[in-house]
């Protein structure tokens, strides 16, 4: 489709761009400044509505640079819901009180735009633009607490790692361009398939895949590109950390799936069980997934800072999802999507609880969580529910998500060893999640005082907890929804 | 009533827990006894329903013909069903769960540390246990199996003894380690069976047709191993038993009763409900190993119990030993004489029930003395914090001071060591008869299970050693001056203990009701296993 008619499919992204500009304009007048938050929340809601409305459309736009399909729409819904929840949480976070708000929202919307571009692009250049748009704004967001050394360190580490990874990725893209003479994913796929030289020697494809993986792997904090994660997560303001743990990860996974399936599977689509030209990249992913979840879980055990624990846990969860990504099948992709929805709620919920505690007690250290169960029983019980779900125990959604991830593996009847590694990892994860539960409930509180969160925050925690429980008992409607996605 | 009775059994405790939540919002703070009464009512109704179920239960019904069976869609896309029912295997366990839950609520009347939390979690635990015993869908079974872990973690971790935190997480980690393997086995069974199903009854037909290999093994064999790890940790089978003494000793009395009385039985129940009917060929190949492990359990548990100076720890290790009888009895299913196999299997099922009652009585009685004396050492340890007491006898001569208590304890000890006229004797004897009958298997191979059984009988002797020694040092001899003010067992405690004592006595003299309840189901199960053609691994 040519440019002009394409615009009607591009409305969600245009609204985001509009929001960025509006926020900057509102900042000019001190009277209007207080409206920035409601305008952004409303705007994101509209984005969500338009994205929801476009569900089911399958359309290439802007001369094959961009695609609107249910796959990308699903991921956009994830980004929008995350952004919405984070926007509300930011308003209730004490950490962000003394931060200049307008740029905060501008940057947040820029990240959102970048992520949306990432999952919708079908052209290497567009993909790179998407990644960089999201990354550049993320670097600044991580360093939002200007006077705070840890936050500055986080930002710097993020920049260095990020630019390094995207540089490698860019080189990988140029490699692909050299092989295929095009930047369009489908044309690259076609010329790779038809190249007799590559058929004989597929080494070049391996190199390209490895380099692309560096860029994507850094986004989803896949081992060995995970080193930035704990420090950035610890240093960044908690709402931003929560955002980082979901949205860019989902975008990275979406991008990963799109690149791998459309470039390196035989049919160039999602319903294909064979990797291209006998390039055994599924095995490579399986090994990386095993490494990612093992390192994430094992290193989390020795952490004493709740944000760092959640950082390592997010590495581990990326590993679980990658585990399923190593299987080329539609049910594996569905399992990943299913898990993403659940992960969104349970992980955000846990982070919101961390915001609540850092607001009220000013602590992030696990020692400071002593006896919280007796200080705010309801919230602490919900936190237990969220942690149980993160561990993957019934009757919570986390369990169902994991069942689907493992099912994909066993249904495909490959990589049984990976399934064994995966389940052993869930046992390990119990240990550190329950370290938090232990100090909250099994240790005595230091004093008898009670604490209650701000209403916005308690509503957010409840909002995240309800699906975590309900989807653990009845999840067929979510599955039906994901079933509707066409591949 | 027929249709809903099993659902009620599961969900009455949940309703009770919700009622507590409401009550806590409206005046529960000033009136902590209210929580106890809600718990008594909930478990009481559950017990009455259980009795009603028992009276209306027809032992010759299978789950397919039984009027109580309920089968409803839960998640149609994944073919998960809400499928519950009872047969001779689950019936005694359902009764045991309902009965012990009620007793345990009464026995924890003196809980002062947040009774709301304690009783609400206890009811959730109760619901989970009941769910495990009536589930006929593997997925449902697994959910209930895991649902229990969380309340148990808190019950041990908050209301337990000095090492409660370590005990709680160790229990949790061990059990989860086992159950994740069970999860893999469950998914493998689902995807390898055609049509895909979690229905445990349908899987009896489809699971044995699975024909695939992995890493050079039959996939069925690997499934059996995964299931076995899951169940063996719960039983616990040596060498997976190390969580047990710690958890049992640190848990509060009522929770020790539930742990030993009900939770351990889930391991053997799972083997009998899932591994045995689904993978009969593997049962055959594994029977000898099962017998070896059973005998090790008997001897190892008893030997450890002899070495204990803490009464509760001694009782905990006696559980390891007694569960060994169950495993040994189950191994007898391969016997070439049908009567021998029946003796072994029925003995195993009866031992599950009888050990549940006997160990409950033992733990309750140990709890009674602990409440009065605040310790339960037969001998104080050498490094005891009070130097004057270190190495000294803990009690002594209580027999004269607390006659009723001593009589009950004597009875519990004798039941534990398998004295005739107590229920434990019959089930243990049946297990040994079963094991002894296996000198050739039904497929005509010679078997060493008979020799193993002969070694296992040593366990009876070892059991006698520690029970009698403990009795002697606590109740006989000169009265320990420190305890001359001790009062005898209270009425509330009697209410807990006497019904259990009666059941032990009645089933010891007249075990027919129990045997009649289980025999038809086990006869079918034995036929199922013995009619399986035996192939190599």
Summarize the structure.
Chain A is mostly helical and 487 residues long.
- Radius of gyration from the alpha-carbon trace of chain A, in angstroms: 22 Å
Strands in their spatial order, largest beta sheet of chain A:
1-2
The major pleated sheet of chain B works out as: 2 strands, antiparallel
Helix content of chain A: over 70%
- What percent of residues of chain B are in strands? under 5%
**Count of beta strands of chain A:** 2
The secondary-structure class of chain B comes to mainly alpha
Explain what this protein looks like in three dimensions.
Chain A has 487 residues and is mainly α. Chain A is built from 21 helices and two strands. Chain A has a domain at 280-487. Chain A has helices at 3-6, 11-26, 36-53, 70-92, 101-120, 124-142, 149-180, 185-194, 196-200, 203-219, 228-235, 238-264, 281-301, 306-325, 330-360, 372-375, 377-391, 397-412, 416-442, 455-473, 476-483, and strands at 59-61, 66-68. Chain A has a two-stranded antiparallel ribbon with strand order 1-2. Chain A is globular, with a radius of gyration of 22 Å. With 537 residues, chain B is an all-alpha fold. Chain B has 21 helices and four strands. Chain B has helices at 5-25, 33-56, 90-107, 115-134, 138-147, 149-159, 164-192, 200-206, 219-234, 243-250, 253-278, 280-307, 311-331, 338-373, 398-401, 403-416, 423-437, 449-456, 458-475, 491-509, 512-530; strands at residues 70-75, 80-84, 213-214, 217-218. The radius of gyration of chain B is 23 Å and the shape is globular. Chain B starts with a helix and ends in a 7-residue tail after the last helix. Classes of the chains: A mainly alpha (487), B mainly alpha (537).
């Amino acid at each position: 489709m040519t440019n002009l008619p394409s615009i009607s499919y591009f409305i969600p992204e245009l609204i985001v761009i509009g929001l960025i500009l509006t926020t900057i304009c509102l900042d000019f007048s001190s009277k209007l400044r207080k409206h920035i938050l409601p305008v952004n929340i409303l705007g994101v809601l509209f984005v969500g509505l338009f994205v929801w409305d476009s569900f089911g459309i399958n359309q290439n736009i802007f001369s094959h640079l961009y695609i609107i399909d249910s796959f990308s729409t699903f991921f956009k819904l994830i980004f929008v819901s995350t952004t919405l929840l984070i926007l509300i949480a930011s308003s209730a976070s004490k950490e962000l009180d003394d931060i200049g708000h307008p740029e905060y929202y501008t940057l947040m919307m820029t990240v959102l735009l970048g992520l949306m571009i990432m999952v919708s692009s079908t052209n290497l250049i567009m993909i790179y633009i998407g990644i960089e748009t999201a990354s550049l704004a993320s670097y600044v967001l991580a360093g939002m607490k200007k006077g705070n050394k840890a936050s500055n360190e986080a930002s710097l580490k993020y920049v260095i790692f990020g630019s390094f990874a995207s540089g490698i990725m860019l080189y990988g893209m140029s490699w692909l361009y050299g092989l295929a003479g095009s930047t369009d994913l489908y044309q690259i796929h076609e010329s790779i398939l038809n190249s007799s030289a590559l058929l004989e020697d597929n080494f070049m494809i391996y190199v390209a895949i490895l380099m692309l993986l560096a860029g994507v792997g850094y986004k989803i904090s896949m081992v060995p590109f995970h080193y930035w994660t704990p420090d950035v997560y610890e240093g960044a303001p908690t709402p931003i950390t929560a955002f980082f743990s979901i949205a860019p990860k989902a975008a990275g996974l979406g991008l990963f799936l799109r690149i791998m399936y459309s470039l390196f599977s035989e049919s160039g689509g999602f319903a294909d069980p064979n990797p291209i030209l006998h390039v055994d990249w599924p095995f490579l992913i399986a090994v990386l997934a095993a490494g990612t979840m093992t390192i994430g879980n094992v290193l989390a055990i020795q952490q004493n800072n709740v944000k760092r624990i959640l950082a390592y846990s997010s590495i581990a969860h990326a590993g679980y999802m990658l585990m399923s990504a190593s299987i080329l099948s539609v049910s594996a992709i569905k399992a990943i999507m299913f898990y993403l929805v659940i992960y969104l709620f349970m992980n955000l919920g846990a982070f919101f609880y961390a915001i609540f505690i850092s607001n009220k007690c000013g602590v992030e250290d696990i020692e400071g969580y002593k006896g919280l169960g007796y200080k705010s029983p309801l919230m602490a019980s919900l936190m237990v529910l969220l942690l149980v779900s993160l561990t993957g125990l019934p009757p919570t959604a986390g369990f169902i998500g994991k069942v689907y991830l493992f099912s994909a593996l066993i249904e495909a009847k490959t990589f049984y060893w990976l399934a064994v590694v995966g389940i052993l990892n869930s046992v390990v994860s119990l240990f550190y999640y329950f370290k938090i539960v232990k100090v909250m409930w099994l240790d005595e509180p230091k004093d008898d005082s009670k604490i209650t969160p701000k209403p916005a925050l308690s509503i957010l925690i409840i909002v995240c907890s309800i699906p975590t429980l309900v989807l653990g008992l009845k999840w067929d409607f979510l599955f039906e929804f994901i079933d509707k996605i066409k591949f | 009533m027929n249709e809903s009775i099993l659902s009620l059994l599961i969900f009455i405790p949940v309703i009770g827990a919700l009622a507590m939540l409401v009550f806590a919002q409206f005046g529960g703070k000033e009136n902590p006894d209210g929580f106890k009464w809600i718990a008594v009512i909930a478990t009481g109704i559950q017990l009455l329903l259980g009795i009603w179920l028992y009276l209306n239960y027809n032992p010759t019904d299978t789950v397919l013909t039984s009027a109580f069976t309920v089968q409803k869609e839960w998640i149609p896309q994944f073919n998960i069903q809400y499928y519950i029912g009872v047969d001779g295997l689950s019936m005694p366990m359902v009764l045991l769960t309902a009965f012990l839950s009620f007793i345990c609520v009464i026995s924890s009347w003196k809980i002062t540390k947040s009774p709301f939390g304690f009783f609400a979690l206890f009811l959730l635990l109760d619901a989970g246990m009941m769910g495990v015993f009536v589930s006929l869908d593997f997925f449902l079974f697994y959910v209930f199996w895991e649902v229990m872990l969380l309340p148990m973690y808190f019950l041990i971790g908050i209301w337990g003894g000095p090492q409660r935190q370590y005990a709680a997480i160790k229990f949790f980690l061990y059990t989860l380690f086992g159950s994740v393997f069970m999860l893999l086995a469950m998914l493998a069974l689902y995807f390898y069976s055609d049509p895909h199903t979690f229905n445990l009854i349908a899987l009896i037909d489809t699971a044995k047709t699975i024909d695939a290999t992995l890493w050079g093994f039959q996939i069925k064999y690997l499934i059996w191993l995964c299931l076995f790890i899951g169940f063996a940790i719960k039983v616990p089978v040596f060498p997976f038993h190390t969580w047990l003494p710690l958890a049992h000793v640190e848990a509060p009395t009522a929770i020790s009763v539930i742990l030993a009385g009900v939770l351990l039985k889930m391991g053997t129940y799972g083997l009998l409900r899932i591994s045995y009917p689904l993978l009969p060929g593997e049962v055959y190949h594994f029977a000898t190993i099962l017998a070896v492990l059973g005998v090790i359990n008997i001897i190892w548990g008893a030997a450890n119990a002899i070495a204990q100076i803490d009464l509760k720890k001694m009782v905990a290790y006696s559980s390891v030993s007694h569960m060994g009888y169950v495993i040994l009895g189950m191994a007898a299913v391969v016997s070439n004489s049908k009567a021998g196999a029946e003796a072994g299997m029925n003995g195993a099922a009866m031992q599950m029930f009888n050990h549940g009652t006997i160990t409950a009585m033992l733990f309750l009685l140990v709890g009674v003395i602990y409440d009065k004396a605040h310790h339960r050492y037969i001998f104080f340890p050498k490094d005891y914090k009070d130097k004057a007491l270190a190495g000294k006898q803990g009690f002594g001569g209580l027999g004269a001071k607390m006659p009723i208590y001593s009589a009950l304890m004597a009875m519990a000890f004798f039941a534990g060591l398998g004295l005739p006229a107590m229920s434990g004797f019959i089930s243990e004897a049946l297990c040994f008869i079963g094991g002894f009958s296996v000198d050739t298997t039904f497929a005509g191979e010679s078997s060493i299970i008979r020799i193993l059984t002969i070694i296992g009988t040593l366990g009876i002797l070892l059991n006698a050693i520690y029970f009698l020694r403990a009795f002697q040092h606590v109740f006989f001899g000169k009265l320990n001056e420190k305890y001359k003010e001790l009062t005898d067992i209270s009425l509330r405690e009697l209410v807990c203990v006497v019904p259990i004592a009666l059941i032990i006595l009645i089933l010891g003299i007249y075990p027919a009701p129990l045997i009649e309840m289980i025999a038809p189901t086990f006869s079918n199960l034995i036929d199922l296993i013995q009619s399986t053609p035996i192939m190599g691994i």
